[in-house]
User: Which sequence fits this backbone?
């Protein structure tokens, strides 16, 4: 079970959180102006990364806040936790 | 009662003053406190403990520990009976009852043993090759195979015991309390770290418990006792015995299965739980899990009486139980010489040590020779013989290559045979932590490779088998783990415990005894004794192309038993490598998976059973419903009154009565389960405009509006009424089952996409209770209970809200209706709910007030054609499919709007909501019934939809239904059919509105 560091509450077990899929997918400004393909890309297509992945989590059984995580999908190593709206921190070696 | 004829007069860690009686396969025996079932059987001279899984060959004890593949027993006979218990781990208690598994009808006379004589036609992959074809025959084979095979029996009644869970954190978790683990725990504990030391055995000490060794110039037992006292004196150290670390998961999360009762007596009832599952988050882990001795692979190496050398040594030293009187020892390394000396010391006649190596000048070998024990160097045991137990070993000389034997065979009589093929570190937990074991050719074993998580291995677990090394490595690992967790011992470093260094002659890898004579079959050279996999099976699998170790495992089933191949995997890999001409390091290991040893479901489930399996939510007037005979239904976690039967009434009778009362007099409904979300903030109208499909910017204060929410895919997600209470204050209601999901949905959009909106949501579902009254007398009744709310329809019209006092309680009253009658939904703080309900019931008596349940509510709303999200919709239905174009705004964007313009949403043959009126008005369609247009077609028929809601409507004096039908909006007037098992029901498609279509009654 993962240990996730909520930016507001600190480290908690994964079962307190819910997963929200890929991060940084922005809802289009004017959906009406998009082609079906563009809308489908927003709606359905998420990366299936093997390795570092930027994703969203919510502390559903805690403070109920959403935040972003950079997690390696192979090793489950979490290398960054940052707030909604922020850009991912630079990767350190 | 039999005598314990193989019990030594002195020694061992048993208490001869506490005799215990037990039964095994129906026979009665006696043992002592401190025994395991296995050691007690040895002491009583019982050799045959079980039968193998496939060939049902007679089997005896191979080991003395948790890696035991053969001695699987069913413990106890009652509801707490446990299958698959390893006799080597079952602590003896008075009255213990155990029977062997895999034997039918008995261990001595076994019908399945016919498989043994047929073994020539039961090779690797036999089950796949034979029973899988033809596939349709599997049902015939299956019950025969299951009866003869079977891994014990599951108890048939509920488990009377309770189980527990513990969540814990520690700085250093030490796994294994042998010399390395104890030394690590001492070092980490002295540094001040919070230490958890867990060991699967009933006593701490690990392998030391079965050996005669010296530490710090005293017997090991003294060092163990001193170490335990020292650890117990440290307030931050916890010692757990009978506790198997079962799984190693991500981020240093480990599970420990702890057996709590003395003797693990399943028959004894007490307040204490039987087992406890620990869930531990450790900053650092020290794996001191020891090593497993490997069997030698020769012909008939599975006969009872053939066991690992360390096991024989352990039975003698720890339990004072002699496996026999005359022993032959077969080895490729020095550790078995220590066993030989201990056996001789206990009075066993060791007739020969058969060693595949050439003679070497090691102290152990010299000691054995000087005792007068014959050592046959460069020899191998090529076969064992005996019926049901070993009676002789056939020994031949090895050629220089070691790949064949020659010369005359010598038969050596014995009554047990000890073997040692070297040691395999228990890298299971290391592997579970995602570390990759690497092959150490000099030690002929896989050792832990690079750490992936915060763990380190020490002692035999990392291939350092000598006691002196175990102690220093354990100590160093403990110091390092504590330091990594932030604990450093002040002052000068503590000294590690010391054992004398012993020179050992190197082991010689020796994986498979050559066939004698050369070319003879290897089909009785057993590799995996639990699953009856032989060297011949592995060679066959390799020839058939199963070259990957993972494929080999599945095809031959090697390592797939309940022991997970602890004594067989490495031998199997090596033999595969030899067959393929590949190096064992290139073959690699299979993946080790949790749990390390089997767990009972009870341990995993803990207390989450029965009433605690899932929370039950009840409204504040639940007790009234119970007292008044309600039948309940589950709506999510809620218990809701389903209907209120009077004596002698069927469900249909009760629902008819409730439905008539609603339309003719007055109904009262507990609607407190409705989801309620308080939404405040200056941007709320804008927010609602985005999440609902219709417009919200012009809703006046005091007015209610119905809304539908869609996902971004355009599918209906939830619906409900939202009311504007104040300038920036709204009150949203959701369906009962969806309340939490809707709140999460709103929060997600507010936090992740629209943080600029000033909107704040709070769940109010439990704070406010809701009582609905509906029907022609509802207004009259309410007028008697309020004097500050004007109830005239002009002053308080449909879809508005008023605050006031009802029955002396501050209340919010909404004129909304799900039944289609003139209704008032009265909301009061939850603690006044019962008072309100009782007042309404009393005051309403003269009007015939009738409590109605969810079933009547569903009938009444279906009469009106109101859909229920999740019943008439299923995540593939848009508002347009429901015929609700009027609620979909053309002007503004909203969540899901763009999806409604996707080509698939515009198809004319989408499934759309319609009404169905059965041609026979007394026939009620079954919900879920499939709909077809043409009864003349052959199966599979073209199904155009299904019934989503269906009832008998007493108000309409006929049956009605709602259905999703392809192109349904254009089918009104058509006749369709629902074919059932014994009949066909014809129905006419209609508008989904059957009662008061203009809505005059609810506006009244
Ligand atoms: Zn939090």
Assistant:
């Amino acid at each position: 079970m993962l240990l996730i560091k909520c930016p507001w509450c600190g480290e908690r077990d994964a079962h307190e959180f819910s997963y929200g899929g890929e991060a940084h997918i922005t809802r289009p400004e004017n959906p009406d102006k998009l082609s079906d393909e563009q809308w489908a890309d927003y709606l359905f297509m998420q990366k299936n990364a093997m390795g570092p992945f930027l994703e969203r989590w919510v502390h559903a059984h805690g403070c109920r806040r959403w935040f972003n995580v950079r997690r390696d999908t192979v090793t489950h190593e979490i290398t960054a936790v940052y707030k909604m709206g922020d850009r991912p921190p630079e990767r350190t070696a | 009662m039999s005598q314990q004829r193989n019990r030594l007069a002195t020694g061992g860690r048993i208490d001869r003053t506490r005799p215990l009686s037990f039964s095994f396969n129906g026979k009665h025996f006696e043992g002592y406190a401190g025994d395991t079932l296995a050691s007690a059987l040895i002491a009583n001279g019982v050799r045959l403990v079980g039968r193998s899984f496939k060939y049902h060959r007679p089997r005896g004890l191979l080991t003395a520990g948790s890696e035991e593949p053969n001695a699987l027993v069913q413990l106890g006979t009652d509801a707490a009976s446990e299958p698959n218990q390893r006799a080597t781990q079952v602590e003896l208690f008075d009255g213990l009852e155990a029977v062997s598994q895999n034997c039918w009808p008995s261990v001595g006379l076994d019908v399945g043993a016919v498989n043994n004589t047929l073994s020539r036609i039961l090779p690797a992959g036999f089950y796949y090759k034979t029973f899988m074809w033809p596939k349709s025959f599997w049902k015939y084979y299956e019950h025969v195979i299951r009866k003869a095979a079977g891994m014990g029996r599951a108890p048939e009644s509920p488990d009377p015991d309770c189980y527990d869970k513990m969540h814990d954190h520690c700085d250093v978790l030490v796994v294994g309390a042998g010399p390395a683990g104890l030394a690590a725990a001492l070092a980490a504990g002295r540094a001040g770290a919070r230490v958890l030391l867990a060991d699967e055995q009933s006593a701490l000490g690990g392998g030391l418990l079965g050996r005669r060794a010296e530490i710090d110039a005293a017997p090991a037992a003294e060092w163990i006792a001193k170490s335990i006292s020292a650890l117990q004196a440290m307030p931050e150290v916890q010692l757990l015995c009978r506790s198997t670390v079962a799984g190693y998961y991500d981020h240093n999360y480990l599970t420990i299965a702890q057996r709590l009762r003395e003797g693990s007596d399943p028959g004894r009832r007490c307040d204490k739980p039987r087992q406890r599952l620990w869930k531990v988050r450790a900053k650092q882990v020290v794996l001191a899990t020891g090593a497993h001795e490997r069997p030698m692979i020769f012909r008939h190496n599975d006969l009872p009486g053939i066991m690992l050398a360390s096991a024989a040594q352990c039975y003698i030293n720890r339990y004072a139980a002699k496996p026999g009187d005359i022993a032959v020892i077969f080895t490729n390394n020095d550790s078995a010489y220590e066993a030989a000396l201990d056996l001789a010391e206990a009075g066993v006649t060791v007739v020969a040590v058969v060693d595949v190596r050439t003679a070497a000048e090691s102290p152990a070998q010299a000691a054995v020779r000087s005792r007068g024990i014959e050592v046959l160097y460069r020899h191998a045991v090529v076969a064992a013989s005996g019926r049901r137990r070993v009676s002789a070993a056939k020994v031949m000389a090895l050629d220089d290559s070691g790949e064949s034997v020659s010369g005359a065979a010598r038969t050596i009589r014995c009554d047990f045979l000890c073997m040692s093929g070297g040691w395999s570190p228990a890298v299971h937990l290391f592997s579970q932590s995602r570390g990759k074991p690497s092959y150490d050719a000099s030690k002929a074993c896989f050792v832990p490779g690079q750490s992936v998580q915060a763990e380190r291995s020490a002692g035999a677990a990392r291939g350092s088998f000598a006691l002196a090394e175990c102690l220093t490595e354990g100590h160093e690992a403990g110091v390092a783990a504590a330091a990594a967790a932030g604990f450093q011992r002040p002052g000068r470093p503590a000294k590690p415990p010391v054992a004398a260094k012993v020179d050992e002659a190197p082991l010689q890898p020796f994986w498979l005894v050559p066939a004698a004579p050369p070319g003879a079959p290897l089909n009785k050279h057993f590799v995996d004794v639990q699953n009856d996999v032989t060297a011949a099976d592995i060679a066959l699998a390799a020839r058939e192309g199963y070259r990957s170790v993972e494929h080999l495992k599945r095809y031959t089933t090697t390592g797939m038993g309940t022991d997970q191949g602890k004594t067989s995997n490495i031998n199997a890999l090596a033999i595969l490598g030899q067959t393929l001409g590949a190096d064992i390091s290139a073959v690699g290991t299979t993946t080790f998976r949790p749990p390390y040893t089997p767990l009972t479901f009870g341990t995993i489930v803990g207390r989450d059973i029965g009433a605690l399996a899932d929370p039950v939510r009840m409204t504040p007037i639940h007790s009234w419903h119970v007292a008044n005979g309600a039948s309940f239904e589950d709506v999510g976690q809620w218990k809701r009154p389903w209907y209120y039967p009077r004596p002698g009434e069927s469900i249909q009778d009760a629902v008819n009565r409730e439905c008539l009362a609603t339309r003719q007099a007055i109904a009262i409904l507990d609607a407190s389960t409705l989801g309620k979300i308080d939404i405040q903030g200056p941007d709320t109208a804008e927010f609602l405009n985005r999440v609902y499909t219709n417009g919200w910017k012009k809703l006046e204060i005091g007015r209610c509006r119905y809304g539908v929410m869609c996902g971004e895919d355009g599918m209906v997600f939830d619906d409900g009424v939202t009311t504007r209470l104040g300038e920036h204050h709204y009150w949203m209601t959701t369906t009962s089952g969806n309340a939490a999901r809707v709140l999460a949905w709103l929060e997600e959009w507010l936090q992740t996409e629209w943080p600029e909106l000033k909107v704040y949501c709070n769940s109010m579902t439990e704070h406010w209770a809701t009582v609905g009254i509906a029907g022609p007398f509802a207004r009259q009744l309410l007028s008697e209970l309020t004097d500050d709310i004007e109830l005239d329809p002009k002053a308080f019209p449909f879809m508005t809200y008023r605050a006031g006092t009802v029955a002396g309680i501050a209340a919010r009253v909404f004129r909304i209706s799900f039944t289609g009658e003139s209704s008032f939904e009265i909301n009061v703080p939850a603690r006044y709910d019962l008072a309100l309900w009782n007042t309404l019931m009393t005051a309403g008596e003269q009007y015939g007030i009738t409590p109605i349940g969810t079933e009547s509510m569903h009938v009444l709303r279906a009469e009106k054609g109101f859909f229920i999200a999740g019943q008439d919709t299923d995540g593939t239905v848009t508002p347009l499919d429901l015929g609700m174009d009027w609620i979909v705004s053309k002007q503004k964007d909203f969540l899901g709007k763009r999806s409604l313009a996707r080509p698939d949403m515009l198809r004319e043959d989408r499934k759309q909501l319609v009404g169905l009126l059965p041609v026979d008005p007394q026939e009620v369609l079954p919900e879920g019934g499939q709909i077809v247009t043409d009864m003349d077609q052959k199966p599979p028929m073209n199904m155009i939809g299904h019934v989503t809601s269906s009832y008998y409507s007493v108000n309409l004096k006929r049956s009605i239904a709602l259905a999703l039908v392809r192109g349904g909006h254009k089918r009104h007037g058509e006749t369709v059919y629902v074919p059932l098992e014994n009949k066909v029901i014809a129905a006419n498609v209609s508008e989904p509105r059957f009662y008061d279509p203009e809505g005059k009654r609810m506006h009244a």
